Amino acid sequence: MAGRARQVSALLALAGALAGCARVAPPAPPSPQLDAFAWYRQAGGKVLAIDPAQSLIAVTVRRGGPFARFGHDHVVASRTVTGFAAPDQGRADFSFRLDQMSVDEAQLRREAGFGAPPPDDAIAGTRANMLGRVLDAERFPVVSLHAERRAGQPVQLTVTLHGVSRTVAVEPHIDESAGGLTASGTLQLRQSDFGITPMSVLGGAMTVMDTMELRYRIVARPR
């Protein structure tokens, strides 16, 4: 039973860590941030570089269904965010690689209110399924984010994941100090917003909840 539960947990997580695979999107344009970086090279005013050592994007994925107790909730995180920000123009572009994400760091699980991490073999299975069957990381290796802000309005954040782009309004907390800035906050995305059907196994007895909870801290410093 324990082995079956671990297998089912891995199936749960494969659709929940940022996205699922029910509908395959068209191929994403190659290296979309190349154009963005060219814009920053030509931009006037202050241009900051994202500090990956201090930045974090953490995604919480929760289990659902009548047999949810046999699965696990998961936290998937990136600590390798790179990109640029131009505060004077109200713009930022940043990205991270899926194959550099961590799965179920103990500290991040505690911060999410979860218990101890699943067994190592369950985490390894979750990671393999996430990068392979769910996110197709070989084909879509990068998640890109583009943020723009006009005076008096929320930030418009465009997320490009698995070849699909969606724009949401967010209101981050901005802290400016020492010539740089830190943007932090939370937001929710639904898998279905990206044309994705959340993973379901055992006839719907175990599912991945549609909503993904994102927590972010993006630190940008003078170049």
Summarize it:
The chain has about 220 residues and is α+β, with helices and mostly antiparallel strands. Helices cover about 20% and strands about 40% of the residues. It has one domain: Lipocalin, CATH 2.40.128.110.
Explained architecture:
By secondary structure, this protein is α+β, with helices and mostly antiparallel strands. α1 crosses α4 (120-134). It starts with a helix and ends with a strand. The longest helix is centred in the N-terminal third of the chain and has 15 residues, at 2-16. It has a single domain, classed as Lipid/polyisoprenoid-binding, YceI-like (Lipocalin, Beta Barrel). The radius of gyration is 18 Å and the shape is elongated. It contains four helices and 13 strands. It has helices spanning 2-16, 33-42, 106-111, 120-134, and strands at residues 48-50, 56-64, 74-78, 82-86, 91-97, 102-103, 142-148, 155-161, 164-170, 173-177, 180-190, 200-201, 206-222.
Q: How many β-strands, per DSSP?
A: 13
Helix proportion: 10-25%
What gap, in angstroms, lies between the N and C termini?
54 Å
Strand content: 35-45%
Let me know the CATH homologous superfamily: Lipid/polyisoprenoid-binding, YceI-like
Q: What is the rounded Rg?
A: 18 Å
Global morphology? elongated
Largest sheet: 13 strands, antiparallel
DSSP helix count? Answer: 4
Total domains: 1
SSE arrangement, N to C? HHEEEEEEHHEEEEEEE
Can you name the CATH architecture?
Beta Barrel
Calculate the mean pLDDT score and round it: 82
Q: Class, according to the CATH hierarchy? A: Mainly Beta
Low-confidence stretches: 10-32
At the fold tier of CATH, the topology name is Lipocalin
Structural class: alpha+beta
